[in-house]
Specification:
Elements: E1 2-8, E2 11-12, E3 21-28, E4 31-39, H1 47-54, E5 59-61, E6 65-66, H2 67-75, E7 79-81, H3 88-96, E8 106-107
Parallel strand pairs: 1-5, 5-7, 6-8
Antiparallel strand pairs: 1-2, 1-3, 3-4
Helix pairs in contact: 1-2
């Protein structure tokens, strides 16, 4: 299984589309066996979910995310875990233990985004 984290270096990004990179972790038998950083190729409507699908990603972890991206991930059978903050690798380890839950932090407006975007309730 591949788990991608929308990241600002090693921290979960506040907004999926505006991350610096995607930290992609390959999991086998509950353990991380490979880590790679894939640079964000650019924020365009509908592009990033398809890009991650093409990389073979099964799960995406992020702070906030727009509803359109969530819909595309759902269509691609990619699990979406949003409303997350902290170190990317720590969040993947929590996910693998079954201890990471999505808060459903959907960004409804794209007029304004900052680090607080993932903190919507």
């Amino acid at each position: 299984m591949k788990i991608a984290v929308a990241s600002m270096i090693d921290q979960v990004a506040g907004h999926f589309g505006h991350c610096e990179c995607f930290n992609v972790y390959t999991e086998e038998n509950g353990k991380i066996i490979k880590e790679e950083c894939v640079e964000n190729p650019g924020h365009r409507p509908g592009f990033l979910p398809n890009f991650l699908h093409d990389l073979g990603v099964n799960v995406i972890i992020s702070g906030g995310m727009g509803g359109g991206a969530i819909d595309i991930f759902n269509e691609k059978n990619i699990e979406v875990v949003i409303g997350i903050q902290g170190k990317a690798k720590d969040m993947v380890e929590l996910y693998l233990k079954g201890e990471l839950e999505s808060t459903g932090s959907v960004c409804h407006s794209h007029d304004y985004h900052d680090a607080s975007c993932g903190a919507h309730s």
